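Incident log, structure service

09:12 report received: a user says their structure output differs between two submissions of the same chain.
09:20 pulled the input from the user's history:
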Amino acid sequence: MTVHMKHFLGAFAQRLLILFCVVASVYAPSAFAQEDDELLSAEELDMKEEINSLKRAIDKPEVVYKLNLKNQGYKKLPVTFAKLTKLQVLMLDDNPLTELPPGLQNMKNLQILTMSNARLKNISPSVFANLKNLQSLSLSGVPLGKFPKGLEQCTKIEHLSLANTKLKGAAPSELAKLPNLLTLTLAENEISSLPEAFCAMPKLIQLNLSRNKLQALPPTLDKFSVLSDLEISVNNFSTFPAPLASIPKLRRLIMQENPLQSWSPALASMRSLRSLNISSCKTTIFPTEMCSLDSLVIFTANNNRFAEIPSAIGGMTNLREFNIAYSQVKVLPKEFTALKELRFLNLAYNQLQDLPEELADMTSLMTLNVYGNQCKKLPQNIGNLKKLTECFVLLGNPLPKQEVERVTGLFAPNVVQ
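09:34 re-ran on a clean worker, output below:
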């Protein structure tokens, strides 16, 4: 397993627990059903001690509600583990477990279960069928090969990760039987298509399908009525998928490292979009279709092959961050300087020979990076950029000595040489 994947899974587990607690506090009436007298509320559970020792837990099982045994080398858990019937949070990540914990199916109060990187191959359907209160589950890195049978009966699940579980072909249609899903991660698999039924998750807010084999998306994405965060990086999209425009509340779209060769007019209609990342797509065509999106706040497109930025860029009037480093840009059009709300501008390692004089009017700029270009001069009134706290303009540009001294005097100590 790569260092990148271990970092990804560890970060996911931490975010999962934090997100669960936040959502639980917001949806308290429904998040903790009172079918069992011993089932604690979110506030009560938060006050319980998290136990990190299996021996200590088994010695006093009646007081153990949260157990964290991450990365403790367990290949198998003792039969006495079954005594922990009050568990509501169980974290077993990064243990080489080859079978489920004894008595897991009887832990009916369990709400959070994380077993990332276990070595399980078979999971009895009866296990999940009994975990009626399960709301967060991570099986990332477990070589399942298919959707775990019985999991579709855990209808209270809100957060689910099946990243790197060797899923192939069509995404599991059983996911549509989990009506309360809020976040879903299917990254690092070999999923090549999404069945139309897959989109029938009316509460889904966040979906990660990165590092799969997708080439197209179904026309039923509009069923994701509240989806706001979608990641489809490192797939096989050669054309911007038009169905994305039908997701009514999509705010953040990450699709870096796709072999994009063309764009769709549908991009211009994505009026809810706030953040778009198309880094490392090696595309030669700047997505002019997005230039009318005055809703866009963050645009990241570094490591592409743009020859130029279109003059229509000035229509993105609410843009705050613009990152287009390593993209072979030769000219920054003066219309770009109409982006008066811009705070962060990264033009590093392009082929710029100068910057428009109007850049000095972009007085909201706080970071300006033009490292590694061919600039021989800078705007005469660049000193107007009073809010600059990071100024990366000197290194890698053939600026004459007097220009270097001028800029250093204007922005010291914030200029970086």
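09:41 both user submissions now match this output. Likely a transient worker issue. Closing.
09:42 reviewer note: Helices lie at 3-26, 28-31, 42-47, 54-59, 125-130, 401-411. The radius of gyration is 26 Å.
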